[in-house]
């Protein structure tokens, strides 16, 4: 029975797994069916009924964990996977799923630990080895990442995810030509994989190759019209090439898909600011801060905008908040001092 894992951020792919549920009860069958139909809340409800009647039903915990993951309730996903592990302690897939969830939570060391446990139980689990390589990249353990990707590519030379991982390794170690070559190999290995186009586009964007990057983001979006990161990347490139209105369109597309996407609000706010559309910019900063109240950079950005609008006392308030949230940031501290002087001036 096919199922799709929840999205893995910044650097991983959706993994398609196969799983069977022998002798499933009607509720279990309905819960799994709801999961596969992307009706995650109903799936959770049905699977909870199964667990209430049978607290040793590993499949119910497994699929409920997947459903929680899809709605980004990672804490409950972790609880369910760990409960399933108590029932089936040698199940390598469960360690794999925990690696995915902890990676999504940006707890990279814990993610690495669970992937390693999965690999110890299934040493040829290429998905676990590849994902662990990405986690090593996230913790700046470049040589360990390279070792994992090379192991996978020795067995599966056209593994798109490992090829992109090697490309990221070369990019992180400033080997531009090797990185671009490996990104292109990843694209060629699977022309229908939007992630490989996105990653090459992001690499080109970082290296200020904005037109080439836009082409790759276009391709990623043509394959997946809800690819948030590709819209943001393309928007950033449009902004860098003076196409601010097109950038706003892309950030707006993201907000239509995900109304709580702080990055899109922040980037659109700054683009409005550049165009002198201060009221629109302020609306977006307000929205972003409502979503992410502890993001120091949002307060700093809004403070700059308020100062431009001659609302210096409010600008000082935001500058103070940014400095409080990130006291080690010299830029915020210098801006706070400037605003304090401005307010104190007669």
Keywords for this structure?
346 residues, mainly alpha, two-stranded antiparallel ribbon, 19 helices, disordered N terminus
In short:
The chain is built from 19 helices and two strands.
Q: How is the biggest beta sheet arranged?
A: 2 strands, antiparallel
Tally the beta strands. Answer: 2
Query: Major sheet: order of its strands?
Result: 1-2
Helix content: over 70%
How does the SSE layout of this entry go?
Layout: E1 2-4, E2 16-18, H1 26-36, H2 40-53, H3 58-70, H4 74-87, H5 92-104, H6 108-121, H7 126-138, H8 142-155, H9 160-172, H10 176-189, H11 194-206, H12 210-223, H13 228-240, H14 244-257, H15 262-274, H16 278-291, H17 296-308, H18 312-325, H19 330-344
Antiparallel strand pairs: 1-2
Helix pairs in contact: 1-2, 1-3, 2-3, 3-4, 4-5, 5-6, 5-7, 6-7, 7-8, 7-9, 8-9, 9-10, 9-11, 10-11, 11-12, 11-13, 12-13, 13-14, 14-15, 15-16, 16-17, 17-18, 18-19
How would you explain this protein's 3D organization?
Helix 3 (58-70) runs antiparallel to helix 4 (74-87). The chain has 346 residues and is mainly alpha-helical. It is globular and about 75 Å long. The model is unreliable at 1-24 (pLDDT under 50). It has a domain at 297-346. The protein contains 19 helices and 2 strands. The chain has helices spanning 26-36, 40-53, 58-70, 74-87, 92-104, 108-121, 126-138, 142-155, 160-172, 176-189, 194-206, 210-223, 228-240, 244-257, 262-274, 278-291, 296-308, 312-325, 330-344, and strands at 2-4, 16-18. Helix content is 74%, strand content 2%. It has a two-stranded antiparallel sheet with strand order 1-2.
């Amino acid at each position: 029975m096919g199922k799709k894992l929840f999205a893995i951020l910044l650097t991983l792919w959706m993994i398609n797994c196969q799983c069977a549920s022998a002798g499933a009860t009607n509720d279990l069958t309905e819960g799994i069916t709801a999961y596969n139909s992307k009706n995650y809340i109903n799936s959770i409800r049905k699977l909870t009924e199964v667990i209430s009647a049978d607290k040793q039903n590993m499949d119910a915990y497994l699929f409920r964990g997947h459903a929680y993951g899809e709605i980004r309730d990672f804490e409950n996903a972790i609880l369910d996977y760990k409960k399933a592990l108590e029932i089936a302690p040698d199940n390598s897939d469960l360690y794999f799923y925990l690696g995915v969830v902890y990676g999504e939570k940006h707890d990279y060391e814990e993610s690495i630990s669970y992937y390693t446990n999965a690999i110890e139980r299934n040493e040829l689990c290429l998905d676990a080895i590849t994902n662990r390589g990405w986690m090593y990249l996230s913790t700046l353990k470049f040589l360990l990442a390279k070792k994992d990707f090379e192991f996978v590519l020795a067995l599966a030379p056209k593994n798109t995810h490992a090829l992109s991982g090697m490309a990221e390794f070369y990019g992180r170690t400033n080997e531009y030509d090797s990185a671009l070559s490996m990104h292109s190999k990843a694209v060629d290995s699977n022309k229908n994989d939007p992630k490989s186009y996105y990653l090459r586009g992001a690499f080109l964007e970082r290296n200020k190759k904005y037109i080439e990057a836009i082409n790759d983001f276009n391709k990623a979006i043509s394959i997946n019209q809800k690819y948030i990161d590709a819209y943001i990347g393309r928007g950033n490139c449009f902004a860098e090439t003076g196409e601010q209105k097109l950038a706003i369109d892309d950030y707006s597309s993201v907000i239509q898909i995900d109304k709580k996407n702080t990055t899109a609000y922040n980037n659109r706010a700054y683009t409005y600011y550049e165009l002198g559309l201060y009221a629109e910019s302020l609306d977006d900063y307000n929205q972003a801060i409502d979503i992410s109240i502890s993001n120091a950079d949002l307060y700093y950005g809004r403070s700059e905008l308020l100062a431009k609008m001659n609302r210096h006392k409010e600008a000082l308030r935001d500058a103070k908040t940014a400095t409080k949230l990130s006291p080690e940031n010299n830029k915020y501290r210098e801006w706070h001092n400037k605003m304090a002087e401005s307010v104190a001036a007669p």
